[in-house]
Structures are given as C-alpha cells and as structure tokens.
Specification:
heterodimer, A: 144 residues, mainly alpha, B: 152 residues, alpha+beta, 3 helices, 12% helix
Amino acid sequence: MSATAMTKTAVAAAGLMIVSIQNALPATVGIESGRFLVQQPPTIANSETLQTKFDALASQWRRDTQFSSSVTDMVLHPAYQQIIGQGAAMVPFILRELQKGPDHWYWALGAITQQNAAENAPDGDIEAICDAWLDWGRARGIIV
Amino acid sequence: MPPALPAYRAAFPKLTDGNHRQSSRYDPRYNCIGYAAGTKMWWQPTPLIGGKRYWPPGVPQQETVDAYVKAYEFKGYSECKDGSYEDGFEKVAIFALNGIPKHAALQADSDFWTSKLGKAEDIHHKLPDLEGNHYGHVVRFLKRPKPAPNAP
C-alpha cells in the first residue's frame, strides 16, 4: 500500500471527528504577543491518543469533583491539572467537551491560553462564561 | 433489573429511598452556596481564571466559615443558634470540613432541607444525612424573615 493510500485508510478509520480537528487547526499553536496560535497540528495518530487521554482524565475529574461546590477544589484535582499540563494541544478537546454542555473548563482554557474570553460575561453565570469560550473557539476556527 | 442509583447515593450513604427526594438533574451552572441564597449563580469567594464568579461585594474573598457567614449576611441573614423550624423564617446551614466551608443547605419546610450537591442534583433531605466525608458537619446556622411570596 502506498503512503498516500495508507494515509487515506487511516483518515477513514479515524473518522470525521479527528479529520475535523486537523482541518480546524491553523498551522501553529501557542501564545505570542497575547494571541493564541496553534504551532503543531496534531497528526491523526496523536489526535486519537490525546482524545483518549483527555476523555479518561475528563471522566475521572467529573466523577471525583461532581459534589464539590468549590472551583478551587475542582481545578486542583490531579486529572484537571494533567489536562492543563498538556497545554495547547488539549484546547480543541476541551472546547468540544464544552459544546456538550456547560462545565468548569474555563479555568483550563484561561490557564492554557492566557486569555479571558469571558471577561464581559455576567458574574457567576457559568453558561454565559462557557458560551463566551465557545465563541472564542469558533472565531479562531478551532471548533465549528 | 432495578434502575441504577444516582451517584450521590454512594457519596452520601445516609440517604435512602425513603428519606429524601431528588428535585433536579445534574447542572454545573450553579452551586450550593448560590442555591441556598436563592440564586442560580456560581458563588465563589476566590477569583477564577478564565471566568467570573459571583461573591457579594465587601465580603472577604476567603474560603473561611466567617466569610461565608458574611456572604449570607449580605443577603439579609443573621446567625441563629440552631436549625429548628421557625414559622416566617428561612434558614441556611453551613457545612465545613476541617474548618473549610464545603456546603450550604436551605431549609425547605418543617421537615426537610434542600441542597444542590456541588455540580450535581438538587435534593430534599434531612439535614444530618449530608454530614460525613464530603461536606463535614454543620457548623453555623443563619436565618432571615421569609420573603413575601410575590416579592421581587
């Protein structure tokens, strides 16, 4: 099988979600002069690995912190810290998780990107804060 | 096969089929502290990265029982000695674990209290049934006159 044919097979096997990540990400990620950029678009293989890793960590975090009323406790959870520690590569996964419904991902997004997309949201309005981050992601082509 | 019990039943083992009822679904948009104050906002004393919390103005931005008491005082509550039902008043109970506030419950009627369990469900329950490893114990009670039914 040629390299091109193998790539096409891998793309088909990976499914539309992984392909859409690649298509959505610009060429570079990181922080430069206060702007959030994508530096290394994930390959299909490492997107799958990162998705699996994110899903496992997010699931553990949700399970362990669901009865907590303190964001401080939530964001200090080791699984949440590991997601932040993965850096910019996790941003598309976090945003797609946020598309499923509001949750306390704004802290990770703010810590990773060094931006506050929700600065104009009303105080304590978690839905508005999450919507602001989704708008931020759409405006940068990270999610559709 | 009987339906699976909600996750909170494992976390709060004093709750049984007969001593509480669930009154909402999982909803991470508001927490117990805001819920007990009669709002659907996320109350948090310390600043958030990437988001904006609500905390009453002028109240110390600390995760201490005294700061939580002052937050409810801002909403018209004052400390009282216990959680006994008093006609014409509503009461809030603050739970703490190792001196750190972890939960607040609002008195619903003469028998039950209502709580938002973190990001999870709202339930009606007896007050001692949430005491334990997650929320610690009730450390303070506050009360205020019940607002008129049509008050803004």
